Amino acid sequence: MTSSTTPCLDLGQARRRAKELLAAVRAGDPDAASRLHRPHDPVRLSDAQHAIAREHGCTDWTALVRAHETFLPADLDEVDWDRVTEVTIVCQPEPDRVTLHRADDRWVCPHDRRLPGEDVWDDSILRIALTRMGFRRQGTHVFAIDPSGRHVVFWIDGGPYSGRRPHATDVETWTGPTHEAAALLREQGDGALARLVAQAAQHRATMTYRQHQRDLQRTLTGGYLRAGTLPGGSGFGGDADDWRDARQCLTAVLDGLPSPVRFLDLGCANGHLGASFVDWGAERGVTVEPYGIDLAPELVGRAAELHPQWADRFWVGDVLDWQHPEGERFDVVHLLLDVLPDDLHGPAIENALALVAERGRLLVSNYDLREQRSAETLVTALGHEVAGRTPMRTRRSNGKPYGQPSVWLQR
Question: Which of 53, 116, 213, 299 has an alpha carbon 20 to 30 Å from 205's alpha carbon atom?
């Protein structure tokens, strides 16, 4: 193993040595007392920890922990989530790239304590990434935990956020290759964080699609089912007016298509986008018949519950291989790339195109502010020709875009 992944000190042993030193000082050992640096009266454990840290070349105990804290591999199904009190997040906007933020005089990853009443996965990760760095989480994956089981580490993908949720707006950030991020962190004394950054990149590179599906289902079901609004249950962080501003533009794909239009939403969550298409399509003089699939049975159940008139039009399925039970095709199929690993964009598009009826359209979205991550950039890089694009929409509150336009491919 490389030096970027191997700690040089057993932190547990250092803690035991500090307790032994404290006991010796309190027992009156002059040699032990001489090792302390300006101790309190009476002497405290922190004085002994400070001495141990200095003997290992660190300025204080906090610096020792930053350099040598160790973590174990973590698995979603094995973490005791009720024990977790602390969360660190490695933000990977793209494979093998890391975004850090400035905190005082150091570059760090978003980190904070779990707040009372928070669900770690649904609430803490979202809040910490937004408020510390203004980073909108998408895929969410736990990969490390400290030996006490109280400090968990996630890696997430996603991008900059500009919506209405509380978020950092003036924070200084740095984005670069993983090895450069790890080197930067080691140089400033954060060896433990450097190792976590390297481990996050390795976890992302070796994660199986089954693991991705499981983590995605956990991310979607928790937050979506607890959402108090229809847009929230579809993964959107604004109110009904924001939802209309952000998503009505998608109905540009309906222009020129004969009515009625069979609209299939791949990854439909609570079915709210399909239901909205019905109303927005009517405003354009188009009758829309909504359908949807989702990976999570709980969300398919919620869609059927909210829209009983279309309950038989929602299915459990994976965007990579789902086919209609009777081989039916749809006039418009909507595919959201955000929820998929980059290397599966191609297969997902191919399977989605197979669901499109003759002369129908595949509408592709990627809700990202960055032009290099736009739907158009991603699909053209895969060799597809764009037949049309939706208008760019901006927020009424601050004039910032909701993301790059969606595009459609013609069948």
Answer: 299
**Segment 47-75, tens digit of pLDDT:** 998 998 898 888 888 888 888 888 999 99
Computed on alpha carbons and rounded to an integer, the radius of gyration of the chain in Å comes to: 25
Q: What residue spans define the domains of the chain? A: 11-64, 72-207, 229-410
DSSP, collapsed to helix, strand or coil, labels residue 17 as: helix
The CATH code of domain 229-410 reads 3.40.50.150
Q: Which residues contact 15 (CB under 8 A, 6 or more apart)?
A: 49
Cβ-proximal residues to 409 (8 Å cutoff; 6+ apart), any chain: 349, 353, 361, 362, 364, 379, 384, 385, 386, 387
pTM of the predicted protein model:
0.82
Q: With pLDDT > 90 as the criterion, what percentage of the chain qualifies? A: 77
CB 86 within 8 A of CB 154: no
Q: CB under 8 Å to 80, separation ≥6 — which residues?
A: 149
What pLDDT, in 10s, does the model give residues 276-334? 999 999 999 999 999 999 999 999 999 999 999 999 999 999 999 999 999 999 999 99
- Per this entry, what is the length of the chain? 411
| Contact of 152 with 142, CB cutoff 8 Å | yes
Q: How far apart are CA 34 and CA 54, in angstroms?
A: 13
**Helix H or strand E encompassing 48:** helix 45-55
What is the reported pLDDT for 5?
Answer: 44
Q: Are 317 and 294 in contact (CB under 8 A)?
A: yes
Among 2-11, 203-212, 232-241, name the most confident range.
Answer: 203-212
Residue 142, pLDDT above cutoff 70: yes
The overall average pLDDT reported for the chain is: 92
Residue with tokens 């450097």: 194
Antiparallel, parallel or unpaired: β 330-336 and 106-108: unpaired
Amino acid at 78: E
β-strands 314-316, 288-294: how paired? Answer: parallel
Class for the domain spanning 72-207 = alpha beta
DSSP state, residue 123: I
| pLDDT for position 371 | 81
What secondary structure does DSSP assign to 76-100, as a single string? Answer: TTT--GGG--EEEEEEEEETTEEEE
The Cβ of residue 379 has, within 10 Å, a number of other Cβ atoms equal to 23
Question: What is d(CA 366, CA 357) in angstroms, rounded to the nearest whole number?
Answer: 23
Which residue is associated with the tokens 């290099």?
Answer: 372
